[in-house]
Amino acid sequence: MLDTLFTYFARYGYFVVFLGVMLENAGVPVPGGTILLAAGSFAAQGNFHIWSVMAIATFGAMLAALSFIMLALVWRWLVHHEDWNKKRLAAFLARPRIYVFRRRYAAQIAFVQDRLTPESYLGLHLTISAIILIGSAWLIGGIAACLIILLVAFSRMCLGLHYLSDVLAAMVEGLARLALSPTAVETVRRRKQMLNTHIGQTRARRQLHA
After folding, report:
1. Tens of pLDDT, residues 55-71
2. Mind listing the pLDDT tens digit for each residue in 60-109?
3. CB-based contacts of 56: which residues, under 8 Å, 6+ apart?
4. Which end of the chain is flanked by fewer CB atoms within 10 Å, N or C?
5. How far is CA 152 from CA 35, 90, 142, 146, 163, in A?
6. CA-to-CA dists, residue 107 to 15, 103, 110, 143, angstroms
7. DSSP class of residue 53?
8. 44-51: which pairs have CB atoms within 8 A and are 24 or more residues apart?
9. pTM of the model
């Protein structure tokens, strides 16, 4: 595998490091850590600059994190502008080509909608099945996730990719992030609640003065 990575490094350069680290941090099952270690070995041979590898890997990880933030912001915008989005969707569906497509495949579209909407019989069953599946995954997934974390940590040490100190440091970092996440969410929720209260009080004062 190392020879294969070296071949990719020689052919595509730093882009392999950037893409591997970015995809791994985005949740895609790509061995970004292995690619980064191989890039360090490639740099030790004088083919890469180690500081360039570190900078590009950091940029890829930050870009992956920013992509999740952008998706959250887009989802928030869609939720807050639901009426406007519905109007835009209605205007899009009213376009001649889209209208012709919907008329041509009306039976197929109705078939899919009838079986995926909660109001229909099969749609209701699919919805209940999805809820049961998500609930089971939530209950069992906690145990499975812990086992996967331990197995991954053990495999990194067995393969000689990390020391025990590296694995323990990564676990401490993960626990720190897990501890900070509820605090951050609660802080944002309280700020939003205070903002809504302030807006409500301001509107009430304006109505009283009017």
Report:
1. 998 898 888 888 878 88
2. 888 888 887 888 888 888 888 888 888 888 888 888 888 888 888 888 88
3. 14, 17, 18, 21
4. C
5. 16, 48, 15, 10, 13
6. 47, 8, 5, 44
7. H
8. 47/9, 47/10, 48/9, 48/14
9. 0.46
